[in-house]
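G., before I forget:
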Amino acid sequence: MKKFYLFLLGVLCLSVQAFAQRTVTGTVTDEKGQPLANVSVLVKGTTNGATTKADGTYSVIVPANGKSIMFTSVNMDPVEMVIGNNAQVNVVLKQVDKDMEEVVVTGYQTVRKKDVASAISQISAKEIENMPVANFAQAMQGRAAGVIVAAANGIPGGGLSVIVRGVGSINAGTTPLYVVDGVQLNTSDGSINTQANPLNFLNPNDIESIDVLKDAAAASIYGARAANGVVLVTTKKGRNGKPKFTFDTYVGQSKELKRLEVTNTQQWFQLRQETLINAGATPASALSQALSGIGLPAGTSQGKIDSLPTYDWQDAAFGTGNIFNAEGSVQGGSENLNYYLSASYTKQTAFIKPTDFQRGAMLSKISYKINNKITIDNSINLSTFSQLGPYSTGNTGFGNAAYVASLMHPINPIYNADGTFYGLPGTGQNMIGTYNHNIIAINELVKYFTRTNQLVGNIALTYKITPQLTLRSMVGMDYRNLRDHRYRPSTVNDSYASGGNLSEQVDWNTNLITNTTASYVKTIKENHNINALLGVEYRKDQNQWFQADASGFPSVQLEYLSAASTIVSASGQASASATFSQFGKLGYSYKGKYIFNYTVRRDGSSRFGANNKYGIFNSVQFAWNVKDESFLKNVKAISGLKFRYSYGQAGNDQIGNTLYAQLYGATRLYGGGSGIFPSQLGNPDLTWETRVEHNLGMELSLFNNRVDLTTDVYKRTNNDLLLSRSLYQTTGFSTIQQNLGSVENTGLEILLAVRPFVGKFKWESSFNIAFQKNKVKELYDGLTQLPGDASIRVGSPLGSFFTVEWAGVNPASGRSMWYDINGNLTYTPKAADSKIIGNIYPSHFGGWTNDFSYKGISLNAFFQYEYGRVRQDGQQINLSRNASTIGNGLTYMYDTRWQNPGDVVPTPRPFNGQTDYNSVSWATGTRYIYKTDYVRLKRVTLSYDVTAPIAKKLHLQGLRLYVQGVNLITYTEWPGYDPEFTGANTGTIPQTKSFTAGAQIRF
Amino acid sequence: MKKIRFKILILGLVAGVSLQSCKKQLDLPSLNSLDASLALTKKAGIESALNSVYSILKREAFYGRDLFSVTDAMADIAFANNRSARLISENRNTANITTAVWSGAYGGINEINLTLAALPLVTDATPADVTRLDGELKFMRAFLLFELVRNYSYIPTFVVPSQDRGGVVINLVGFNNPTDAVAYMPARATIADCYAQVMSDLYSSISQLSSSNRGRNYASKHAGLALGARVNLYAGNWAKADSFATAAITLTGGIGAMTNTGNYVAGWRNADHPEGIFQVYFATLAENLGVNTSLAATHTTLKTPGGINNFWETRQGQGDLMPNAFLLGQLGITGHNFNSNLTSSSTQPTTANPAGTPPPTLTYGSDIRNRLFEWGVNAGGHYVECTKWFGKAGAANWDHTVLFRWPELYLTRAEARYHMLNEPDAMLDLNVIRTARIVGFAGPATLSGQALLNEILRQRMLEFAFEGHRFYDIKRYGLDIVKANPVINMPATSFRLLPALPNNEVVGNPNMVQNFNY
């Protein structure tokens, strides 16, 4: 009805004023002269309006009192044109100034970069584009100052650790909170086969930006989940305009970074005799025992020994990995609707078979403006990824190719003359030595298959009640279903006796989140900006899994439960957690110069004891845009200067779901009946760890933004650590969870970006470095070391090695020596001789990226580095046995072993059983701890964009061709396969180097 | 416009109502565990709690492996061959070789204490149920405390007074709240007090358990009497050891019976040993300890008896702990033609030698017990391996563990009677065993004095080889541990005879004393 009246009114006006009105036409274009459609054209002070057509033209009726026309469009600066006497008004709209547009996602809000008052690192789509990795977190490596990203191993789509500003917890988790388009993710990995990182669901090329909330003040709005930092991921969305298609593909290969040089059969045989002689055997007996050890009769001639073969198992196990990716997207929109749709397929195989990763993913983002006040947004990310798992993700299993390839006794053939595998069980052929599984055969015979189906999506309704007040409700879901199928046929050693083994597992995660926020933005008297936010949120996480194990299969072709003769066991569990929260923010800025923010969040969590279920987290932030002060306004050299200080609190709730409760577990069995037992004492006072942090930052831009420097210093204390307090086991319990002790992290982060050349030849360079220090400030009861873990000591950092120092080889006896606490040499150091040796976290690390471009050619080179970290290498330990067991070892150990009194060498005498009599265990102490320091050329990309005329001829918007190399050059003294790993590094698939070539087409 | 506003109002209302109920949503108790206050209120809960206590015995640190294999590696009958680098330090008697029963045993004792306290309040159990449950729980508390004191302390019959740091902690009250547990600072009781507490529980148990029983997988009157005989033998209470053994031998409705030379080997091939009085029962395949640490995997590479007939057969277990040459000699096994590492080699079949060259044929004496020892497969050479465990319960690595067998009753009584200066009756019991084990045993000359004791101990060694008796026999008499390979000559006065208490138990507790020299 309303419209009808309006129409009527219009007609009336028209008839009255007909004599005075006229029609004005024109064309609206952008800076490049391209016509702009859907530009709103309004005669100021009237309701007369129109929108431009596809060719940019418009026609509008201007009444007599119409003086000027307003042109507005999304992402364009509005323009007002005075009509005067013109019948035609053409206008050029400019893109909104980039600097003005640059926004930072801060959690429930985006704010202008200028208004940010806390430590946030932003990674743009461009930096991680087309990186051949399975998930975005890995692509973050080296990009954000102060964020350590370490892949656990080289399994495509495998685990990784992301640590923001150092570790603050001893027993609770250290994983940051991941939020994708407002949906908080569950990052637990339930696979029994391989590492199925839940972050794999997202195609990294669908990401618009990643913002890492580093300091507690920035993260504080996420309350009890925020203590390890927050990673906010924003996916791409449609922009107004015609549909834009992109097609993107790359292919490539990966290879191992390194092989380890191991002894041949003759060298090994020599060593074997020495180990036996050194352990007391006569040379004659040593010879016969060494022969017996490799299945040869006593009296075998030297000539026969000299002609024994050597097989290269690393060569057989290490192949070439393949990389393939193809994806397409379309985006566009009109005034009311915009959309971004993408589909992708990616496949990566590891260089050790059969491990791989395949993903198909779809992202659909649609935003519909119902009217000027109400908008509905919908985002659905559907993905399915499958992985063939390795025989083991990293342990000393004899069938694990990554572990055994270097350790296999070299006398063992890989294949028989007829091409079949050598040494399979039941064939009458036995592999020689400890490592008696044909790993190449096993890789081919076993089937470890994991499938993850994941949905991450949300629906949001935004209601602009008034221009100042906006209400937004969001419902989001992160649903994941993982299925493991783990089949070892009876043809492999581990399942020969049982007739084949099968485990089937299904794991469901349902993670629901909903929140409603009200935000209020108002400018009072031009200078006072107020920005307030209020919200409530509820999140519930549920996990359920069950597993069945069976054995005894009539044929290797039959690999499902119904064919099994025995169901060995079946198990399953369920658990859930929930939080209910209220939060708010009050921001005030004066002329954009002085910025003040206060945030508060109250969290209630199901994970904590009745006495401490609720907690409140506050933050305050101040920023001063000095550049806006009159005294700097005219200093040309300085194009921007801002200081900020923040203080905030955040919590860490990453502990078990029901640790507060006094419970009887039900996991024991006896005599066919189940057994219940007091599994935990409970603690009704249990609550979160609290992190408080001071952060001081400076952002400086010089010479018209040619130099950008951002520095942050912080001091952060984690209090009330969730600690397993040791109990005397005579109570029947060994630990109880309490909130005790504190850890302090301090650090300095520097980001320096320079643009030395900005003309036709462009060079942009960005370097970041972070220095970190960590120490345990306090434990409990005045203890200076944690009972049960002597490496956790007041005054020393977490992640320390606390052990005795190896003193090298005694030149007289060839035996390993150690230092006691007084620095004297000993063969039998005691626990009390231990000291802090080094740390598994780097002291300084970062990245350096360089972009060169000239016309259509650009080169990007990205270096990444880590210093000040040491690790023990489990693979190296096992390769140092020098034939003391029947397995292979490093040539280095052979070459540098002690042989005669007086030899000054780094490797002790070979000794059967490895540990010399009356000595501590051979693996004791620092001998196997090495520096992992490295600098690597993480990524180098050379690309060519065809020029616009050529593209036009091809009917394309653009075409880019590129080649890319990852991990091409590494400088390190680390002796093992690769210094980048977490954990013990025993039998893990190492990182690889890869080459890819790709094309990106826009049309 | 109006309509949309209305819709939003509805949405808002729905959201508001659902948020209201969120507070309740924060109460999410464990779905996999029971709230402690509900666990022991019914008879079914008590039975399950008792199952849990039995299940502790299945662990590797208990009768899954260690109380047999670790102790025998430390004694003088075994050789750890370094095939999988297991049991090497144990075999070399280095310092602080622990049969790590501490945490498991005290966990079990705490469970028993809590369950005993809850038992009288259970409403749905008959008085007979309560009596039986109380009896089984007390048996297990006695047994666990006995395991603690015999492993961490001297045995009363041989104490080095200057090195004696007492028995272990006696705790008869369960812990069910954090405050008490944090405040607990226990002290070690004397060895005598520990043995007295074991016997006190055992008397109560035996009096409550009737002759009817739940079989050898559970505590029974028969098991209680057998344990009583063993405890008193260790304590040097010879008369009581005699009377407990006699009561067990003569018990009506007892469990199991002796085997003889005819069915001895068959008895060992049975899933349930017919001589067993009390065994640890691994009811399902999934409960076995697997290819690395099960008893079968520890002791043999063979899949089936006589596997060496195909001497290039696929290796099944690790085969880490082997009889040494001394034990093989005592068992009467010769012809093994060992090299100094106790292996013999074979060669693989070739076209020139289609049969290959197997290890030499073994010669067996008349002691039937040696039939449980035979060549294993070639895995760095062949060893003679013990085949008492073979996956007899139905699949690889799956065996029940017999803790009390009939022969122990006779050998215990023989030893007790020897000390009671009743040598004729001691001889009688000794000959019961020798007759049952030696083909054509004719009862040779009567032994007396030290020779008689030595023979009783020798029979214990042969009868219970790899069943976890020998080390304690050495410890009881303060014998030196002498081994040729590895070369070990450890006097019983060495501090290494005892392990250290777990270090965390001593740190911060002034009442707690660590063992000598640790």
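The CA atoms of residues 135 and 208 of chain B lie 5 Å apart. Residues 285-399 of chain B form one domain.

More on Monday.
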